[in-house]
Design goal:
The protein is of the alpha/beta class and about 220 residues long. Helix content is about 35%, strand content about 15%. The protein contains 8 helices and 6 strands; from the N terminus they run H-E-H-H-E-E-H-H-E-H-E-H-E-H. A 6-stranded mixed beta sheet has the order 3-2-1-4-5-6, sandwiched between helices. Helix 6 links the parallel strand 4 and strand 5. Helix 5 runs parallel beside helix 6.
Length: about 220
Amino acid sequence: MFLARLAEGRLLSYETRGEEHLGRGPLIICLDASPSMWETVAGHHASQAASAVDPTRETWAKAVTLVLLDHTANAVPPRQVTVVRFSVDIDSTHHFPAGRPPAPDEILALAGAWKAEGGTDYWPPLHNALTLIADARHHPRQDGAADVVFLTDGEHHGHTAWLKTFRARKAELGFRVFGVAIAGQPSPELTAISDTVHTIDDLTDPSDARALFRL
């Protein structure tokens, strides 16, 4: 219900703290789908306390994603958007071509995608993002500066040997990463991969994402 109301534009938006300007190349949204995302923002289990007042972290992250999809669909020039759901690996990938609004079945497929198994590994979605951004360089309409929005509630589990490689490729490809900590404070790994990091307190309502990122 919360997600539906947001998608229909019925929720109020509030002033945010700070603004960032997105580029005009492809937008990749990395969406944490690990089991902890099924807890509410306040840390309760969804079966006990999830509501519009205290939605699950997954619901909040998907709501932010839908807002970003809605506004990039009307961007000038149009932007291609890819949503990568992940846990310890990539769970599902959802492509939204530039120049047209997302189709209802595409939105339903994303909104209905269930939680994945395992913990949280940042590298699979980031490696996928690097590939998508590099490939976009060969498409004239999507060769502007790319952006990655990384939505997660937890710390990276596993080694971080990939971090140096990621930073080097990020500098080479010239894109930015906007990290969003869905619950608590940003993890050291989220801070390390991001140009700017926001907490859920910066998004009083998920629809604030459009102002936060200046779409």
